[in-house]
Amino acid sequence: MLTKYNPKTDITQFGQLKTSEFRKVRQNLQANEAIDEETMEILLPRKKTIQLAKCRDHISLLIVDDVCHFLQTRDTPFVPSLRVLHRYPNILKHVQVDKGAIKFIIRGADVMCRGLTTPGAVLGDFEKNEVLAIHAEGKQHAIGIGRAIMSSEEIRSVNSGIGLELIHHLGDGLWKASSFDY
Questions:
Q1: Which of 42, 57, 142, 151 is the least crowded, having the fewest Cβ atoms under 10 Å away?
Q2: Beta-carbon contacts of residue 48 (< 8 Å; ≥ 6 apart)
Q3: Closest by alpha carbon to 61, among 46, 83, 30, 91?
Q4: Cβ of 153: how many Cβ atoms within 10 Å?
Q5: What is the pLDDT of residues 112-137, one digit of tens each?
Q6: Host domain of residue 69
Q7: Are 63 and 115 part of one and the same domain?
Q8: Distance of alpha carbon 159 from alpha carbon 4, whole angstroms
Q9: pLDDT at 106
């Protein structure tokens, strides 16, 4: 989804997040994710200016100190970026893909069911449309973030087709954007 993202050309609006929107985002993040109050204060501090960047394709970014901390697509609530996920790995549920799927995910491909059910993969339990961190066999940090197209039970039973829609991955445009200095 963010494979060809370029912050210099794809941002259509950029401005400060309103206080009422800020409170709503914090409440939603704390309700949906496993983020405690202390971590939330580090990620979205009350005393700092939070920037909201609206991009093409219905993508919104929350930027703190010129670094994207959270992103939202049309189909998902605000989810942590990979940079945040690497610092706080337990914010999202995760799945693990086998070694063969790594190169495809890094290139921006969706995660296929077979990559989640083969030896070396760990599927776990999740519902349809849930946002998950994608880890790889033998790697410490997440390589991507995806939205479940099917529940874990459906993936186990069907075992073909797309299991997770890739939202954000290592090497995409958002990962390469080092700062958002506007």
A1: 57
A2: 64, 65
A3: 83
A4: 13
A5: 999 999 998 999 899 999 999 999 99
A6: 7-87
A7: no
A8: 29
A9: 92
Determine phi and psi for 64, rounding to 5 degrees.
-120, 125
What is the total count of domains within the chain?
Answer: 2
Q: What DSSP designation does 58 have?
A: G
Residue count of the chain: 182
Distances (CA, A) of 93 to 11, 32, 133, 178: 29, 11, 6, 26
CATH number for position 27: 3.10.400.20
Contacts of 155 (CB under 8 A, 6+ apart): 113, 116, 117, 123, 163
pTM strictly above 0.85: yes
Q: What is the pLDDT of residues 44-96, one digit of tens each?
A: 888 888 888 888 888 888 888 888 888 888 878 888 999 999 998 888 899 99
Count CA atoms closer than 13 A to 159's CA, side-chain side.
Answer: 5
Which ranges of the chain would DSSP assign to H, the alpha helix? 7-10, 19-32, 37-43, 82-87, 102-106, 113-117, 152-158, 173-176
The two three-digit tokens of residue 53, written as one number: 């960047």
Q: Is 35 a member of any domain?
A: yes
Q: Facing residues of 125 across strands?
A: none
DSSP type of residue 95: E
Q: Report the percent of the chain where pLDDT is more than 70.
A: 91
Q: What span, in angstroms and rounded, lies between the C-alpha atoms of 177 and 5?
A: 9
